[in-house]
């Protein structure tokens, strides 16, 4: 059975190996190493600013869009709101959905609703009454 070498023995062997690898011909003298010089920055030039200051003669551009900039992709009321949502019980929803599906949850006056995002993506708005309060759920 082998016994482990003491740490001091291993360190001594590494030091001897390192010393044997250095030959006196390859060792550099302190005078062979160039000393870097540091050139100071000129102090007469002011430091540049990150944002230029506007001059009083410059006019500010007006970037507000006007009616001509609005592009209509869908006609008015092209996506109909859900006005009378069909509610399902929790057991049925648990069978149809996974735990990772996202919903918008609403709780008002002890009543609770969960509106699945995948269903809202096609209709985008649901008008409902929760806890006696009319609400609009949008996505």
Molecular structure report:
There is one protein chain. This protein is α+β, with helices and mostly antiparallel strands and 139 residues long. 21% of the residues lie in helices and 17% in strands. It has 3 helices and 4 strands, in the order ααββαββ. The protein has helices spanning 7-21, 90-96, 117-123; strands spanning 103-108, 111-116, 125-130, 133-138. The strands form 2 sheets. A two-stranded antiparallel sheet has the order 1-2. The longest helix has 15 residues, at 7-21. 1% of the residues are buried. The model has no long low-confidence stretch (mean pLDDT 77).
Search tags:
single chain; 139 residues; alpha+beta; two-stranded antiparallel sheet; 17% strand
Topology:
Elements: H1 7-21, H2 90-96, E1 103-108, E2 111-116, H3 117-123, E3 125-130, E4 133-138
Antiparallel strand pairs: 1-2, 3-4
How would you summarize what this structure contains?
This protein has 139 residues and is an alpha+beta fold.
Strand content: 15-25%
Biggest beta sheet summary: 2 strands, antiparallel
Overall pLDDT score: 77
In terms of structural class, how would the helical and strand content be classed? alpha+beta
Shape, principal axes of CA atoms: flat
Number of strands: 4
Give the low-confidence spans: none
Query: H/E series, N to C?
Result: HHEEHEE
Sequence of strands across the biggest β-sheet: 1-2
Helix content estimate: 10-25%
Integer-rounded radius of gyration? 38 Å
Distance between the termini: 73 Å
Number of helices: 3
